[in-house]
Fold each of these.
Amino acid sequence: MTHFGPTVRGIRERLREDDRSYSVRQVARRVGIEPAYLSKIERGEVAPPSEATTVRLAKELGEDPDVMVALAGKVSADLQAIIRKRPRLFAELIRQLKEAPDEALLRVVREVRDGNW
Amino acid sequence: MTHFGPTVRGIRERLREDDRSYSVRQVARRVGIEPAYLSKIERGEVAPPSEATTVRLAKELGEDPDVMVALAGKVSADLQAIIRKRPRLFAELIRQLKEAPDEALLRVVREVRDGNW
DNA sequence: CGTCATGTGTCGTAAATACTACACGGTTTG
DNA sequence: CAAACCGTGTAGTATTTACGACACATGACG
């Protein structure tokens, strides 16, 4: 959907400036995929990889897995599982927060974290 | 995952007691799928249908689409889109609400609805 | 008793997903 | 200058998703 590939390429290239081991080949090997595949991913020639691969890639590049998975056009399976257990409540909450400013969302997060229940 | 099929069958059969038009064939026709396919879905012989079909089926049976989609093991694409726009905030919020009791969740929903932002 | 509706068994398939394997030409480096 | 490394083009594949088409036996029903 967005520019998952180019973003990954950008991050990897920046890392590479300080560390020669961030080549397509070496990153691919550490992530557990074929170099040709990573190359295609970065150029957007193929769709973003699976959630599992995306998460391994995120960790390798020092990025937030949730953000990378989102960039890949997905939502983590564990989040989906939580939502599916109480679909009505979560659906309503999420739809209501759709238009809320970041700040409001953050306040709700903090409020819940400080556990007023 | 769960018992999507049998649940649908149960709902349809209950509706049928009052209304003869809730046969596999007629419901399938109204929902826009083949009767054989609906039959297989209800008996769990195949996986639950796509989100779109699940929603049409839910409406036909007078059920909550979000609940049906959840039963089908999925999360609506529109909810996923909302989450993907702010992955960090939503991921944290949802994970924090994982163990919260329904009541707490409901309070947050209400609080947000009454828009204190 | 014939027609019509019902549920279901069997078979097939188009499209998407998520990759691997191999090879090739260019660049770096010891 | 050769060995190693680099990115990438081409081709192929196993699996999953999401259905449709057709035919058949059973049972209700007017």
Amino acid sequence: MATMVDVAKIANVSISTVSHVLNGTRNVEPDTRRRVTDAIEKTGYRQDALARAMRRSRTDSIGLVVSDAGEPAFAEMAHGVEHAAAEQGLTLLLANSAEDADREQRAVRTLLDRRVDGLILARSAASTAGLVDSLAGEKAPVILLDRLYADLPFDQVGADNRDTARRLVAHLTAAGHRRSLIVAGDTRVPTLRERLDGILDGIRDAGLREEDQVILTGTDFGALRTEAASALADRDLTVVIGGSTPLATASLQAIADAGRSTPRDVAFATFDGYNHPDVFEPRITTVRQPAFDMGTAAVRLLIERIESPDSSPRTVRLRQTIELRDSTEHYRRDAEPVPASLT
Amino acid sequence: MATMVDVAKIANVSISTVSHVLNGTRNVEPDTRRRVTDAIEKTGYRQDALARAMRRSRTDSIGLVVSDAGEPAFAEMAHGVEHAAAEQGLTLLLANSAEDADREQRAVRTLLDRRVDGLILARSAASTAGLVDSLAGEKAPVILLDRLYADLPFDQVGADNRDTARRLVAHLTAAGHRRSLIVAGDTRVPTLRERLDGILDGIRDAGLREEDQVILTGTDFGALRTEAASALADRDLTVVIGGSTPLATASLQAIADAGRSTPRDVAFATFDGYNHPDVFEPRITTVRQPAFDMGTAAVRLLIERIESPDSSPRTVRLRQTIELRDSTEHYRRDAEPVPASLT
DNA sequence: CTGTTAGCGCCTTCAT
DNA sequence: ATGAAGGCGCTAACAG
């Protein structure tokens, strides 16, 4: 592989001139520039990003640590990050945490050791004390994506989970639902906690009692499925709400286990949802995150943070949309009309 | 950030000793080693991967260039690559080609400039002359994943598309189907070409005529959907076969457009398919790639190639499985029994 | 407008 | 068993 020395020799200039034409970092006589570019052409020279990074002590790369959930919402976020990074000329280094705090730690370390200029933690288990500590001393800024923890000294990007959950429930109660099965999942996860809180807000708004709802929490999807199936023996539960894609899957399985089906004899709505809602049955009412935009927003915040490390941390929440479909709309057609303001 | 110099000073040794305890690359007195590890502990020293890579001229990282299809099969492959890389202590650098030859070129360049030790091109448009040329001179080996081109000087990992397609058609014809709508897509893509060829093999095996089948090719999914819908006016077409996930989506939409439904009045099967086949209707008979294993196989091949650059290129094809579901099994129950040997 | 030079942090002969 | 020193390829003062 050709180096700057080779180019300089052929062009009959110093390596510093080569560097400067390469980076456009100072004026050089058209004629000399010519000789240099010709030499570059001839040798097929390419800058060595490693050496450059070492000297400049910045790599023009950022890291993304993700839990490897195959959920569409997450894939979209990663995609948004990828897109925005490329647009900024940043290389993206990816590491996988598999929803495991330990692996997350190691992933973060790996990326930091590679001297990424900044780090985005998507769906992080960031609450673990260790992580925050280990990040404190680093100069590489960190952005939290999707799971937002209060009182952390990081920029954060998420969605307005609580508010949208409340709007969703307003719609459901307006349609006549009084008692619901809420498959809330692991409420230590901020996103899921916020969604549950918003649902409860909505319940209260409608003058309903929390005690009349069935709320299922926990981390074990198998157990949740079983519990949900038993709960559904109670035919007064007219609607099921899933807190995320895997929770929705467990819920749908439970509905089938209980010998019920949506929307025929129970309504159903979920957060995050599935791809191809137009091709498969049932068509599910879904709260959709602006996942791609969340990814790009994270990159934007990261870049701003790299440029001004000492401004105070910001939290951005993007607005979600409610996509109404058969699973709620074709249950109880006799209910009150749907307000048009909902999406 | 602490460097080896800091550590050496504190431990009262030379930096070369520090290097050697770090890498276990020569014996050092237990006592000195102790002092060094203590100093490392105290300073929170971490190796600078960049400087190390520069000196050793290897980065312990590999690159993965992918088309950003959100298809499950692809996500699985990427996941497999990620997993295997981590297991080998390799960092994974990811770049996205968005199914665009130009972007693919640039992605490859970016990764090569970062001096990855090797490169995996998944779902590559590698046929473009430029790419192959630009790769020829590089010392970083390249593995092609999923789309296999004959006569290319690279290791390649794919699936036994042709053979499995043939088995699938054997099953369908045994079940009584005589005329099919084959949504084959862009047959310049080797994977899709192989699948179509295998389907035609199967047609011939069954003593049927190719002229009685409707074969739709092309890159425009919208157009394919329209053509498929018109074709389905012919009620003698009793089965539709999709060549990939997006082709399946277009096919399913076309079936709906034509006022038909599967499996009620047309059978359906596809390659690659969708997630959550247990939760949604219709449940689709699917040829499934061992996508995860393909990813890990690519990493294995890459590592072997890095270690012995001059052995001749190998092509690995992994066996696919046929997952039989309602979309073919609940059409024409009166047909001949299904051979048990199929999956 | 161009050239010289000192490192960035590390690994690795070559001495001792 | 340990140290000294050169250099990987590049950028950024500093000179001229």
